[in-house]
C-alpha cells in the first residue's frame, strides 16, 4: 500500500471526526478517490490534508465559540449577580424607608390615642361639672321656692292679722285687744 494514500477512516481519525462526517464532506465537495481497493476508497495526500485542515479549522472555530460562549456565560452570570445585588440593595433601602414610615405612623397612632383619652377625660369632667351645676341650680331653685313659700306664708299671715285688726274697733286697736 502506498504511504501517500489515505482512507476515509484514517482521515477521520486524524481530523478527530466521524467517518460519516468525512463521507458527507467528500460527497458535498465532489472529491473523488484516487484509488479504490475492494470497498475502501483512498485519497491523495493533498486531498487528505485539505480535508483534515478543514475539520481542524472547524473544530478550532467551535472551541473558540465555546470559549467565547463560556466567557459570555461567566460575564452574563456576573452581570446577573451585579443586577440582583443592586435589586437587593434597592429593596433593602425601600424596606428601611417603609420601616421608618411604619414607626412614624405608630407614633402618630400613639399620639392620637393619648389625645383621644385626654378628650374623653375632659368630656367626662365637663359632664360631671354640668351635672353638679344642674344639682346646684335645682337646690337653689328649691331653696328659693322654700323661701318664697315662707314669704308667701308670712304675707298671708300678715294679711290675716291685718284683716283681723281691721275688724276691731277704734278702742280695741288702741288698747291692743
TrEMBL record:
<keyword id="KW-0614">Plasmid</keyword>
<protein>
    <recommendedName>
        <fullName>DUF536 domain-containing protein</fullName>
    </recommendedName>
</protein>
<keyword id="KW-0175">Coiled coil</keyword>
<feature type="coiled-coil region">
    <location>
        <begin position="45"/>
        <end position="108"/>
    </location>
</feature>
